Amino acid sequence: MKLLVLNCHEAWVHQLGILDAELDIVVGLSGRYTREWDSRMRPLPRGARVITMDEALASRTPYDGVVNHNITDLLDTKAIDAPKLLVLHETLEGRMAQQDADFDAREMRAMLNSYLATVGGHAIAISRMKARSWGVTHVVVHNYADPSAYPHSTLERASGVRVANHITSKRVFLAWDFHREALDGLPVTLVGHNPDMPGVEPARDWDHLKATLAEHRFFVHTADPRFEDGFNMAMMEAMAAGLPVLVNRHPTSIIEHGATGFIADTPAQMRQHAETLLADAPLAREMGAAARAWVERHHAPERFRVEFTRSLAEAQKKWARRRRVSMAR
Q1: Which CATH code for domain 2-144+301-328?
Q2: Cα 296 from Cα 324, distance rounded (Å)
Q3: Does residue 103 carry a pLDDT above 90?
Q4: How open is the CA angle 146-73-89, to the nearest 5 degrees?
Q5: Among 4, 71, 118, 234, which residue carries the largest CB count within 10 Å?
């Protein structure tokens, strides 16, 4: 299998290494926070090399599929005659709010659906919420987190931890006011690319991130149900590392209250749960082990492999049908 993958969402793209495929990852794209592959997020996946879009367009390589992350990607790869996958990482409502867009959501859905039909493309989403939001697919390819790739947690540091980039611009999506009111004054380490927040830095690399997760007592995730899921990849990875998770109540939460973490209706409740875990390392260790087992059971690498491979096959069928119609004309 040989795939062309546009460079975005390194943590997600890294998962493609499990396919044992040849991966040409396109770097140098405009609109990204970095023009190169960000090795602080993840190392290049197995079987990958980086190329430019000009090299991809000139190579005429017979790709088995092209992995796109947004509408701009679809337009950029229009000239590449290969099956197209569109991965929906965000909700449409979140995208509109972030861009302060005033277009009609129904028109956007119709336009995207029409364009996918025109190019023979197939859309997948990383969660049911994202799939429902865009309304162009019901197919979910679930992210995976492999506990065997993470050191067992020590929980030696009586502190929470949260991983988030660009917090200031995403404060509404991250329910940041809830987070701040709940945990202000308590020891919580923030990790991520946030240049406007003094003392907050991204991990040096994936090994450093895994080690950082393993030493903390619990993980924090808050999200506004209008725009974001009640979980994300960073949270799943923290669970894989053996951390219990504190979350605000959310209809898509994957936390089992009192077993793999705590669900809080109010900031005061979250604060109380945080203080409980900070004071009780054995409880945190027991809940963290349950979180690790939950991820191993529900978000195994093999599930991602099967779901992605099935979706790629569907993209290939749609592309082949579109080619037959085009040739018949």
Answers
A1: 3.40.50
A2: 42
A3: no
A4: 40
A5: 4
